[in-house]
Design brief:
By secondary structure, the protein is mostly helical. It has twelve helices and no strands.
C-alpha cells in the first residue's frame, strides 16, 4: 500500500500540519508528567487514548482532584465531535468488516478528517480512500506519538521557562484555523471562545466543558436555522412559480372568453 499514489498523497497532506501536531504532542507529553503521572502510565495513556485535546482537558482536573464523573464527562464532551466524524466516515467505509472499521476509528483525527473530505467530497466508497487514509493516519500517529513520548521521557530536563505551553497554544491555533472552512464553524468557534472566557472563573477548569457544550449547541442551532431558511426559500420559490403559472393560465384564457362573448 505504501507504493500507491493515494498513500503518498495522504502522507504529503499530513506533513503540512506535522510541525503543529509534533509541537502539540511534545507539550502534551511534558504536561502529563509534570502533572504527576508516571512516565509508564503517561505512555500507556497516550498510546491507548490517542486524543490530545481530551488528554489536555482532563489533566488539570486530575491535578485538582476532580470527581471521576467530571473527568469522564469532560473527556466525552471534548470528543463529541467524533460522533459527527464517524457518521461521515460511515458513508465511505460501511462496506468494510467491523474489525477494520474499529481500527480506522482508532486512527481517525481532526486533521485527517479535514484532509480526507477535501480529497473525497463525494460521500461514497471509491478507489484510493483506504490508501489515503492509511498514509494520513500513519503519518499523523507518528507525528503525535514520537514527540509526545519524547516529552514524557525528557519532561524533567525541559524547563518550564522554554514556554512550551505557548508553543502548544500556537500549534493548536494553526490546526484550528486550517479547519475553519464555513460560516457555521466560524460562529461555533466564536461562541466557544466567548463561553470559555466568560466562564473562566469556574472551578476545576469547568470553563472548558462550558465552551464545548456551548459550541455544540450553537453549531446545531445554526445548522437547524439554515435548514429552516432553505426550506422556506424553496417553499417561497415554489409558491412564486405557481402564481406565475396561474397568471399565465388566466392571461391565455381571457381572449377565449372575450371571443365567446362577441359571438351572436
Amino acid at each position: 500500500m505504501m507504493k500507491e499514489p493515494f498513500f503518498k498523497l495522504g502522507v504529503t497532506d499530513m506533513m503540512g500540519t506535522g510541525i503543529g501536531i509534533a509541537a502539540w504532542g511534545l507539550v502534551t507529553g511534558v504536561a502529563m508528567v509534570k502533572s504527576g503521572l508516571s512516565v509508564p502510565l503517561s505512555i500507556f495513556m497516550s498510546l491507548l487514548i490517542y486524543a490530545g485535546s481530551a488528554q489536555l482537558a482532563v489533566l488539570p482536573l486530575l491535578v485538582a482532584g476532580a470527581p471521576l464523573w467530571v473527568i469522564w464527562l469532560t473527556a466525552i464532551c471534548v470528543n463529541l465531535r467524533f460522533v459527527i466524524f464517524s457518521q461521515m466516515w460511515r458513508s465511505y467505509f460501511h462496506e468494510l468488516p467491523r474489525k477494520k472499521r474499529l481500527l480506522l476509528a482508532y486512527f481517525s483525527g481532526d486533521v485527517i478528517f479535514v484532509g480526507f473530505m477535501k480529497r473525497f467530497p463525494d460521500p461514497k466508497p471509491g478507489p484510493g480512500q483506504i490508501a489515503y487514509f492509511s498514509g494520513a493516519a500513519s503519518t499523523n500517529w507518528m507525528m503525535w506519538q514520537i514527540p509526545s513520548i519524547a516529552g514524557m521521557l525528557l519532561a524533567n530536563a525541559i524547563p518550564l521557562s522554554w514556554g512550551l505551553g505557548f508553543a502548544g497554544v500556537l500549534a493548536l491555533l494553526g490546526i484550528l484555523l486550517s479547519m475553519i472552512n464555513d460560516r457555521f464553524t466560524v460562529l461555533a468557534t466564536a461562541v466557544a471562545g466567548t463561553a470559555a472566557v466568560a466562564a473562566f472563573a469556574l472551578p476545576l477548569k469547568m470553563n472548558i466543558l462550558v465552551a464545548v457544550v456551548a459550541a455544540v449547541a450553537a453549531g446545531l442551532m445554526f445548522e437547524s436555522a439554515d435548514r429552516h431558511m432553505k426550506r422556506l426559500k424553496i417553499r417561497q420559490t415554489a409558491e412564486a412559480r405557481l402564481d406565475e403559472e396561474r397568471k399565465d393560465a388566466d392571461a391565455s384564457s381571457a381572449p377565449d372568453e372575450k371571443s365567446e362573448e362577441r359571438r351572436p
